[in-house]
Amino acid sequence: MSGVFGPRKRGLSGLFAGILFAAAAVTAASAADNFDVQVDQARVMKLPDKVATIVVGNPLIADVALQAGGLLVVTGKGYGATNLLALDRAGKVIMDRTVQVMNPSGANLVTVYKGVARESYSCAPECAARLTLGDSSAFFTDTMMQITTRTGGAQAASSGPGAPH
């Protein structure tokens, strides 16, 4: 019986290996088309030559700013994925990339869950509230108000009497 099933098993294992290889190749090609950036961070991308127009599929996820020398600054605005198209003067697509905006990471980021409520902190070396998308509304609003108040105070101090003009 093993003689009857032996060649078939080898054929199936070869087929299985071929399917795995093809799947890995597709995944590698897809990963090459992805441009990963963290939310609230910026990365620089080199554009192909002769780009005339840049289109971002969803500007709530990523924003772009064109710089000299064919450089594009991509900033993560919200979690998720969107596409980025570069067109030439004739309207032909010369680049189509997926921009994947991910969670911030690092050893200094601490996430605290209180039931379903989430709070984020930057801990380097002491922990302080961090404004992060996805945190509970109350925590996010309180943190935002503190940041806004501090920024307003700094602006008032820099434009007050005796401040350089």
What features would you describe in this structure?
By secondary structure, this protein is an alpha+beta fold. It has 2 domains: 33-102, Immunoglobulin-like; 109-155, no CATH class. The protein has 2 helices and 10 strands; from the N terminus they run H-E-E-E-E-E-E-E-E-E-E-H. The strands form 3 sheets. Strands 1-7-6-3 form a 4-stranded mixed beta sheet. Strands 2-5-4 form a 3-stranded antiparallel beta sheet, with no helix packed on it. Strand 8 and strand 9 form a beta hairpin. The radius of gyration is 25 Å and the shape is extended. The N and C termini lie far apart (93 Å).
Secondary structure blueprint with pairings:
Blueprint: H1 2-33, E1 34-38, E2 42-46, E3 53-56, E4 62-67, E5 71-76, E6 80-87, E7 93-102, E8 109-114, E9 117-123, E10 127-129, H2 137-159
Helix content: 25-40%
Percentage of residues in DSSP E strands? 35-45%
**What's the number of helices?**
2
Task: Give start-end ranges of low-pLDDT stretches.
Answer: 1-9, 15-31
CATH architecture of the largest domain: Sandwich
Q: Any idea of the CATH topology of the largest domain?
A: Immunoglobulin-like
SSE ordering: HEEEEEEEEEEH
The chain-level structural class is alpha+beta
CATH class of the largest domain: Mainly Beta
Mean pLDDT: 82
How many separate domains make up the residues? 2
What's the β-strand tally? 10
**How far apart lie the N and C ends?**
93 Å
Radius of gyration: 25 Å
What form results from the Cα inertia axes? extended
Largest sheet: 4 strands, mixed
As laid out across the biggest beta sheet, the strand order is 1-7-6-3
